[in-house]
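Please review the protein record below. Let me know how this chain folds according to its tokens.
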Amino acid sequence: MTINPGAAESPHRQIAAQLRERIRRGDWQPGERLPSIPALGEFFGVAKQTVQRAVDQLRLEGTLITKPGSGTFVRGTRRRLNRLSRGRYGAYRGYHADLAARYRQQLLTVGREPAPPEVADAFGVRDGTELLVRRHIVRTDDATVEVGASWFRAKEASGTNLERLEAFGRPLYQEAEEVLGKRYTTATDTISARQPSRDEAEVLQIRPDTPVLHLLHVAFDETRKPIEVAQATWPGPMTTLTEEYKIPAPAPASYDEDSGLSLA
């Protein structure tokens, strides 16, 4: 692998292309650590800053993962989030069968906290209104892939199991339906991309400049009143969102009796 200083493409892009090709070729396997930045700089005969720019480019593409204090690794399989939050409800109001086998959810804290702006807006209350929040993380075998929280009105959840620091033997929404006496009927998902907070970067073990995908999920009852507002944050380069849906068939042609013509 060599760098052509006379090429129109900048040195760090040339390095990124060569590293990308070696990864695709299998020289470095998913989860394998790359040589250090100084070692790569010496190998290519360029400054460390040039190699760092190449690594940053591949990291933002999702090819590499940088773990603070550990090094740079080839990204493994992306977490595939099929149908956004619909997976939490499943086809028959329950989790998809393979969810527990792939991911482990760990409940971290349960308590009352001031609502952040996006949650307050979803509930239609003032910023800082005290709400009940259940915070969790989701892990695979080797990484934390989600930081999440579920918010409920404190008055409605007071004295129920939702206030207890324990996981339920069924999906959270089913527990909420029973103890709140409400039925989840509709929901909205809003996805945005942003930089992580310091805490999110630390828990997800990503660099502070690595983009994340953020989901705001609002579940409503039959009167369109929010029951639960859930947040989930995922490392962007390691996450894909897939939505499968049917495409409407063409509208049937109408028939004009006077002309005998079929009208599209």
